[in-house]
Write a structure and sequence with these properties.
The chain has about 500 residues and is mostly helical. The protein has 24 helices and 5 strands.
């Protein structure tokens, strides 16, 4: 929209072409995400998805009078064992939808995540159109809809699609406010930005630099500090999340940073950290696309260029704040998808008019390459979604739970026990995995399993009746644990998929 009217356009040559193109991109993107819609949510980050599923179930059971007090009590207990991370907005929405449809169906959560991602994608499309051109907007939308990494995470039962939707709604309204400036738009932008930070506080990392950079580039500091609407917007965007994070769950955010940020700050001085980070992102996005997106920032006009750059800087600050997780949890990089998409709009707005000017052959060539790229991305995404059927896994946890005697359990089970909590209705306290110990070592902790193995073991098993193992590889990864369990405790039950040790009746007296 910032380009001259006379500039040739690829997708705007007829009235209906852009409409048909956008509808097709959205429709195919939705159909792709509907693949295996009813499959158990164990395809990506099962612990994170099943955590949300258990919380939603607890809310549903509390709201539904059809369940007994015993059922409500157990569902509620299994929903609160995780502790708060962010407000359960998504879980409440899903639980109340269960009430409307009369049953608990996890596909509801997938459907909501998909809808939130589609809404965010349309906002990115319209923002890219305003900041560049229709051609650039179509490129942004296509990338947003068909990046395989984005397809898989955007259908998961996590708060990421929800907070990204509110984040981009906030950015869009903020951009409109900067153009025309009215109290209505200022307060609406503040509300949307505040809701996004409420849903997940990490949104603030991207939003603060983007807003600051853009306003300084467009108006200068002197005009900003004299603008009362700006203060209203900032106040509202801060008050909404502050009510939850500072009043309702005080200290939770600080505890999170103390656990996952401060012990790992030393990694920021290691060049290898940044190399690993880039390699990690290359596997999610493709390194060539990342480079093109970064270069594309130069093709935006000055104020918009600084907004896009602020988003990139915000993501970088976010990653450096959580150096222990940014290279291990791919959903932490999901907000980078719309940032890359918007960035590519700058290059798309520059290149596609050149394609139009170059004649029919180049136009057909471009269209063919675009269709092949979208088709290839769709095949990869669909293969990832259909790559594993977790129906048998869900049944396994229910059957295993039925085989286990009553009692208090600790152990090494898949997904930190989330699968057992949701499908088996049984809580298993987490015993540290070998990679948890490796992570703690990276954060500066020391472990002496030669002289203090029993002390470590007792600190995690005291008060429990049974030790359950389904992750058999951990026995070889933690030799001291193998020696303690097999040397001192009887096997109560055993199968090819699990072992239960009886901690209450040792076969010989443990030391100390």
């Amino acid at each position: 929209m910032n380009h001259p009217v006379s500039l040739p356009t690829f997708f705007g040559r007829t009235r209906w072409l852009p409409i048909v193109t956008v509808v097709l991109l959205i429709a195919v993107g939705i159909a792709l995400r509907f693949t295996n819609l009813t499959a158990p949510p164990m395809d990506v980050h099962a612990w994170r998805q099943l955590r949300s599923a258990a919380i939603a179930r607890g809310i549903y059971y509390r709201l539904n009078p059809a369940f007994t007090d015993t059922q409500r009590g157990q569902a509620n207990y299994l929903s609160v064992v995780y502790g708060p991370l962010e407000p359960p907005i998504m879980e409440n929405l899903v639980a109340r939808t269960y009430l409307l449809i009369g049953q608990e169906d996890l596909w509801v959560a997938r459907l909501y995540s998909i809808l939130f991602w589609i809404a965010a994608s349309l906002v990115v499309f319209f923002l890219a159109w305003k900041m560049t051109s229709l051609d650039g907007a179509v490129i942004a939308l296509a990338y947003q809809m068909f990046l395989p990494f984005g397809v898989s995470i955007s259908r998961a039962f996590m708060p990421e699609p929800l907070y990204i939707m509110w984040m981009w709604l906030g950015i869009f309204v903020f951009y409109r406010w900067a153009e025309k400036q009215s109290w209505r738009q200022a307060l609406l932008a503040g509300a949307f930005l505040g809701i996004s930070i409420l849903v997940k506080v990490f949104a603030a990392f991207m939003l603060i630099p983007a807003v600051a950079f853009y306003l300084i580039a467009k108006f200068g500091i002197k005009r900003i500090v004299k603008n009362y609407q700006f203060y209203g917007m900032v106040a509202l965007s801060g008050i909404i999340p502050a009510i939850y994070y500072l009043v309702l769950v005080p200290g939770q955010s600080g505890n999170y940073l103390e656990t996952w940020s401060l012990p790992y700050i030393h990694l920021l001085a290691d060049p290898a950290f940044y190399i690993r980070w880039f390699h990690w992102l290359s596997g999610l996005f493709n390194p060539a696309v990342l480079v093109l997106a970064a270069v594309s920032i130069l093709f935006f006009k000055k104020p918009e260029r600084w907004l896009v750059l602020g988003l990139w800087v915000g993501y970088a600050i976010f990653g450096m704040t959580l150096p222990s997780l940014i290279n291990s949890h791919n959903y932490y990089s999901l907000p980078l998808v719309p940032i890359v998409s918007l960035s590519l709009a700058g290059m798309g707005a520059l290149i596609l008019p050149k394609v139009v000017q170059s004649g029919k052959v180049w136009q057909v060539l471009f269209l063919g390459l675009a269709l092949v790229s979208i088709g290839d991305a769709s095949i990869i995404a669909r293969k990832d979604i259909r790559g594993a059927d977790y129906t048998a896994q869900a049944a396994f946890w229910k059957n295993l739970s039925d085989k286990l005697p009553d009692g208090k359990y600790v152990g090494l089970v898949a997904d930190y026990g989330a699968s057992m909590i949701y499908y088996g209705w049984r809580f298993i306290s987490e015993y540290p995995y070998s990679f948890d110990i490796d992570m703690a070592r990276m954060g500066g902790r020391t472990f002496d399993f030669t002289n203090q193995a029993w002390e470590f073991f007792r600190s995690h098993t005291s008060g429990y009746d049974y030790f359950l193992i389904t992750e058999m590889s951990e026995m070889s990864a933690q030799p001291y644990l193998h020696d303690i369990l097999y040397g001192y405790f009887p096997i109560l039950k055993q199968d090819k998929d699990f072992i239960v040790f009886d901690l209450d009746h040792p076969i010989k007296q443990p030391p100390g």
